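Figure caption, in words: inputs first, then the predicted bound structure.
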Amino acid sequence: MIHRIKGTQDLLPGEIEKWQYLEQKARDIFARYGYMEIRTPIFEETELFVRSIGQETDIVQKEMYTFADKSKKSLTLRPEGTAPVVRACIENNLLAGSGTLKLFYMGPMFRYERPQKGRYRQFYQIGAEVLGPDNPLIDVEVMEMLVRFLEELEIHPYQLHINSIGCPGCRPKYLKVLRAEITHALPQLCADCNRRASTNPLRVLDCKVETDQAHINALPASLDYLCEDCRTHFAVVQRFLNNRDIHYSVNSRLVRGLDYYEKTTFEITSDLLGAQNALLGGGRYNGLSESLGGPAISGFGFALGEERFILALPKEDYFWMRPEVYLAPLGPACFDFAVTLASQLRRNEIRAFLEFGDKSLKSQLRHADKLRIPFALIFGTEELHRKEIQCKNMRDGTQVTIRAEVSEIIRAIRGDTAR
Ligand code: AMP
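Bound structure (adenosine monophosphate present):
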């Protein structure tokens, strides 16, 4: 018996419908906001992630699935989607000359993290990137889209947190002050903070260790060190969020774990989740394209964790893509008719399931029930001789005799007629 790898999941029928629902809703809403889909490879050159995410980040230091291929090239299973998307835009010349580019992606990401509820080693993200001007209205539009998305999925409560971590112009001044203050507090801080103090001081603000909290809350905030441009940008973001009635809180400790962010960072959390309470996160990354050899173009994006959205979905049954009708022929003599009927129903866009085994009625109905198919069509040679069929409503158990014609069947199961 070979088992799946720790931190991975099999997504089975019964559960997968929630994923399809989530992904379909994302496609619908992103399309409304003008995004188009992009698919990039699951592995990339390791250098892409080291250069963009940052050498000193947890992802690059501890979490990447990196391996040498047969030609000894260092490859990495993608731990996130932004760097590959920007790489693909540069490589395929999507950024030249055109206006704002809006792209979304969905697919598996890989990080060697400690598996727990809502945290996996292979997990799925849906994300979007806006490549274009450094305009705070983009930040607001993305947040508005995500709020709509959550509302249409009926996920609540949720909280939007925003922050600004400054830009390469003003951040060094802040980091200097932060480093000095952290150094004072070092004896009281945990081992991870001690390590990060010199390599990546911003990440100290992200520490979750209980005994560190009072000391970290007393550290200086990046918001107090923003340059004029960053301050205006953040003020516009807040003004437009207010105008749009989008509730948020400013969280000066929201720094995110990837180095490419600057100016706005944001996160949406929900109490519906456990310890891993972040539904999604993102921010602005103005320098990323240039650092990967592309044009000087700004970016803003986010990624959401599908597993966490699935945990937060309100309903249990998302059987919208399941078969609508189960054809239960009573014996091989009825198979000819069954095959023709299934074909006609499918041509009329009805999702029809036909059992091929020579099974008893009882076992066929049990099967239909297990698959949660709402209607079963039952027919033996006698019924067919009379050109009749039994239509059983699997939810309430009622059964009616109808004529064995497609239009009648469609009326019975959908309440309308064949097209
Ligand atoms: P990040 O790419 O780290 O900014 O994360 C964006 C979102 O992806 C988070 O808010 C989570 O919802 C999700 N996420 C990140 N890491 C994991 C993981 N290991 N397992 C499941 N979801 C994750």
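The first strand starts at residue 36 and ends at 37.
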